[in-house]
Write a structure and sequence with these properties.
Rossmann fold; 134 residues; single chain; alpha/beta; 16% strand
């Protein structure tokens, strides 16, 4: 499920990047348009996000802070342009301390867009290591 913000992000890259930077500087918690009403029925949560300015997009903090993740397993995966996972798995763990956050998967954005053969293998290995595929 996507987490659409109440105020949509701009489609143009530079404008979206600028907004993400402003939200980070303000430590904002953008409002999520559509709440996830059935999160309690899941034990394993795979969550994907881009790395923005070396961090989670601020709307992800809104998501983690406004839901109960006690006892849940969280499997983060990210796209980035050079920063790797940027310790965001640790930031999630600090935000939801009663959940178990697995080592995350990081994929360079350009490779994710191309979904190269090696990227597919990396994703499959990560899913298998975390017992998310059978």
């Amino acid at each position: 499920m996507l987490l659409p913000p109440q105020i949509p992000y701009p489609d143009k890259y530079d404008e979206c990047r600028r907004r993400g930077s402003e939200e980070k500087q303000a430590n904002a918690r953008p409002e999520i348009k559509d709440k996830i009403s059935n999160l309690d029925q899941y034990n394993n949560i795979i969550v994907g996000y881009p790395i923005w300015h070396g961090d989670l997009p601020m709307i992800m903090y809104t998501f983690f802070e406004s839901n109960n993740f006690d006892g849940k397993n969280i499997y983060p995966f990210v796209t980035h342009e050079g920063s790797g996972i940027a310790h965001t798995d640790e930031k999630i763990q600090n935000t939801v301390p009663n959940a178990k956050v697995a080592d995350g998967l990081e994929v360079r954005g350009i490779k994710a867009q191309a979904l190269e053969k090696t990227t597919k293998a990396k994703i499959s290995t990560w899913l298998d290591l975390n017992k998310l595929i059978k």
